[in-house]
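For this section, I looked closely at the sequence of one protein beside the C-alpha cells encoding its backbone, which the following lines show:
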Amino acid sequence: MSDELVKPEGEAPPPPAPSAPSAPSAPASAEAAPALEAVGPAQQVKSGLSWFNIIAVLSVLNSVLIMTKASIIFPVGMGVTQVFAGVGAVLSEKGSSVWNVLAFVGTLVAASCVFVVGRLARAGHRWAWLVGMVAYGLDGLLLVPFGDWIGVGFHVWAIFSIGRGYAALKHLPLQAQA
C-alpha cells in the first residue's frame, strides 16, 4: 500500500486549504530575467546620452535668443555660449554686426564639440562620458560670477543624469554598450 489515503468511492475530496499569498513568480525562462534586468540600465544609458544633444541644441537656441534680445533663455545650455552671445550682442551694438556672427560661430563650434563628445560616448568610448561631464562642470562654473544659480543647478542635474548613464554601462553586456 502506498502513502496515499484511501477514500471510499463516491466521497468527494476535501477542498484545498487556503494558501498564504505567494511572492510574484520568477520569469518562466532563465534567459528572460537578464533581459528584464537590462531594461533599466539601458534606459539610463540612453537618458544620459540624450543630455549631450539637449545641451548642444539648447545652447544654439540660447545664443539666438540672446542675440535677438529675447526675454527668456534655457538654463540647460552652455555658459560659454551665453558669454559668446552676450559679448557679441554688446559689441555689435557699438559697431559692426560681425561680432554677432563671430559669437554665433563660436557657439556652433562649442555645440558641435558637445555633439561629437556625445556621439563618441554613444559609440562606446567611456572616456567621452567623463570628458563631457568634466567640461560641462567647468562650463557651469562660468555661470557662478553672474549669479545664475538656476543655470548652475541645471548643470548639476545634467551632470548627475549623464553620470547615471555612465554608471549604468557596467550593468549592460559589452555588445549593448556600443
About this structure: The mean pLDDT is 82. The two ends are 64 Å apart (CA to CA). Residues 60 and 107 are 6 Å apart (CA to CA). DSSP finds six helices and no strands in the chain.
